[in-house]
């Protein structure tokens, strides 16, 4: 690997980790087009490192909300201009949102790894896209939406989103954000509130997964790799921060179905360059 490749992969990770387009599919396709084997220990470690950069970015975006949830501040500022202060969302919402996925990932880790294959990712892109279109159609019935803002989320809805998240855990390429945002919409949560909650619960989920994987990968941090690891981390952080902020500000213009259509295009590319 060289600096240019590290920058490219860092950009791809930052662009795709938090929007519902499957970062797994993008990373496999990009590595293939660049001529790299994404299954080598060094490449797997690099993927973990750039994912940590994306985690740091989303943590910075939601830093005020995190401080409030941890009970470290009495004053709660709006996350973004025009958004009301937090009143109802609490730590239990987050626990309910992450517990099912963590349990499934812990008990079925080896089984999940056995499911990973290019064909699995290809079908996940297609089915996940259809799932998101169906969620948007369901959510168009305004009577179905009971939580328009993040702070109106109920504990039951948080748990339902956590259960929907298990789909992405068991099906590589389905997209964690895709399953949680669409799952939230199926549970009576608005598109924007579902996205906010999806991004928020991504922090502990990704920290747990990346931390666990790092236990087996830390030995690949050497003088030869630390340079491009650092480059990828920084690029991923910057790009992920920009993408999340842009997505949240333009969420009413970019509907979930637009990401679904993009997934269908990506599936076609996957079929052309990976499957054939």
TrEMBL record:
<keyword id="KW-0046">Antibiotic resistance</keyword>
<protein>
    <recommendedName>
        <fullName>Undecaprenyl-diphosphatase</fullName>
        <ecNumber>3.6.1.27</ecNumber>
    </recommendedName>
</protein>
<keyword id="KW-0378">Hydrolase</keyword>
<dbReference type="GO" id="GO:0008360">
    <property type="term" value="P:regulation of cell shape"/>
</dbReference>
<dbReference type="GO" id="GO:0050380">
    <property type="term" value="F:undecaprenyl-diphosphatase activity"/>
</dbReference>
<keyword id="KW-1133">Transmembrane helix</keyword>
<keyword id="KW-1003">Cell membrane</keyword>
<feature type="transmembrane region" description="Helical">
    <location>
        <begin position="259"/>
        <end position="275"/>
    </location>
</feature>
<feature type="transmembrane region" description="Helical">
    <location>
        <begin position="91"/>
        <end position="108"/>
    </location>
</feature>
<dbReference type="GO" id="GO:0071555">
    <property type="term" value="P:cell wall organization"/>
</dbReference>
<keyword id="KW-0133">Cell shape</keyword>
<keyword id="KW-0812">Transmembrane</keyword>
<comment type="function">
    <text>Catalyzes the dephosphorylation of undecaprenyl diphosphate (UPP). Confers resistance to bacitracin.</text>
</comment>
<dbReference type="GO" id="GO:0005886">
    <property type="term" value="C:plasma membrane"/>
</dbReference>
<dbReference type="GO" id="GO:0009252">
    <property type="term" value="P:peptidoglycan biosynthetic process"/>
</dbReference>
<keyword id="KW-0472">Membrane</keyword>
<feature type="transmembrane region" description="Helical">
    <location>
        <begin position="43"/>
        <end position="62"/>
    </location>
</feature>
<dbReference type="InterPro" id="IPR003824">
    <property type="entry name" value="UppP"/>
</dbReference>
<dbReference type="Pfam" id="PF02673">
    <property type="entry name" value="BacA"/>
</dbReference>
<comment type="similarity">
    <text>Belongs to the UppP family.</text>
</comment>
<feature type="transmembrane region" description="Helical">
    <location>
        <begin position="120"/>
        <end position="138"/>
    </location>
</feature>
<dbReference type="GO" id="GO:0046677">
    <property type="term" value="P:response to antibiotic"/>
</dbReference>
<keyword id="KW-0961">Cell wall biogenesis/degradation</keyword>
<feature type="transmembrane region" description="Helical">
    <location>
        <begin position="194"/>
        <end position="215"/>
    </location>
</feature>
<keyword id="KW-0573">Peptidoglycan synthesis</keyword>
<feature type="transmembrane region" description="Helical">
    <location>
        <begin position="227"/>
        <end position="247"/>
    </location>
</feature>
């Amino acid at each position: 690997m060289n600096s240019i490749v590290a920058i490219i992969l860092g950009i791809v990770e930052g662009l795709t980790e938090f929007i519902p387009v499957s970062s797994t599919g993008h990373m496999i396709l990009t590595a293939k087009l660049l001529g790299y084997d994404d299954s080598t220990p060094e490449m797997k470690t690099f993927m973990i490192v750039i994912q940590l950069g994306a985690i740091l970015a989303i943590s910075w975006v939601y830093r005020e909300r995190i401080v409030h949830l941890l009970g470290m501040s009495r004053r709660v500022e709006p996350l973004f201009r025009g958004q009301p202060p937090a009143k109802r969302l609490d730590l239990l919402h987050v626990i309910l949102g992450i517990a099912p996925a963590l349990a499934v990932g812990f008990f079925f880790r080896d089984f999940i790894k056995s499911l990973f294959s290019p064909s699995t990712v290809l079908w996940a892109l297609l089915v996940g896209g259809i799932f998101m279109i169906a969620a948007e159609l369901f959510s168009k019935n305004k009577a179905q939406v009971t939580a328009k803002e993040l702070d109106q989320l109920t504990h039951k809805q948080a748990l339902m989103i956590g259960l929907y998240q298990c789909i992405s855990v068991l099906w590589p390429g389905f997209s964690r954000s895709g399953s949680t945002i669409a799952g939230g919409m199926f549970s009576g949560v608005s598109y924007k509130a579902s996205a906010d909650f999806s991004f928020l619960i991504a922090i502990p989920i990704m920290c747990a997964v990346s931390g666990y994987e790092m236990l087996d990968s830390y030995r690949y941090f050497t003088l030869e790799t630390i340079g491009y690891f650092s480059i990828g981390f920084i690029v991923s952080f910057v790009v992920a921060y920009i993408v999340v902020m842009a997505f949240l500000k333009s969420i009413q213009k970019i509907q979930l179905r637009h990401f679904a259509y993009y997934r269908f295009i990506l599936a076609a590319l996957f079929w052309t360059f990976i499957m054939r």
